[in-house]
Design brief:
With about 120 residues, the chain is mostly helical. Helix content is about 80%, strand content about 0%. It is elongated.
Length: about 120
């Protein structure tokens, strides 16, 4: 196996350096390969920087809260209007269907009544 191949395989295992669980063969290769040592060093640096970020708290700008809350209120109001419109459409459709059925029933009743009535 060429050194390049070993380095590529080692690079794939380097994320394990964060957890400290590298196979013995990778550790042995890291001891002698400057290229892989540099790559491992970059992983360690990234790990240190991420550890620092873990305890940092990002405060939102003061002028950000009011517009976000206003946008949320608008979205809630818009949703409420959509729901009211949907209920109105549903009720209107039900009334139209009921009226249609009632009209058909009355028409059929009138036909039956006129067919039975003596002439």
């Amino acid at each position: 196996m060429t050194n390049e191949t070993v380095c590529l395989q080692t690079a794939q295992m380097l994320p394990g350096i964060v957890d400290g669980d590298l196979p013995a063969a990778v550790v042995k290769h890291l001891e002698s390969c400057l290229r892989c040592q540099a790559e491992a060093s970059r992983y360690r640096k990234i790990q240190r920087e991420l550890e620092k970020l873990r305890f940092q708290v990002a405060e939102p700008p003061v002028d950000l809260v009011a517009p976000v809350l206003a946008a949320l209120d608008q979205a809630v109001a818009r949703r409420s209007r959509i729901r009211i419109a949907a209920v109105g459409i549903g009720v209107g459709s039900a009334l139209v269907a009921l009226g249609t059925v009632a009209g058909i029933a009355l028409k059929l009743r009138h036909r039956v009544t006129s067919a039975i009535a003596p002439a």
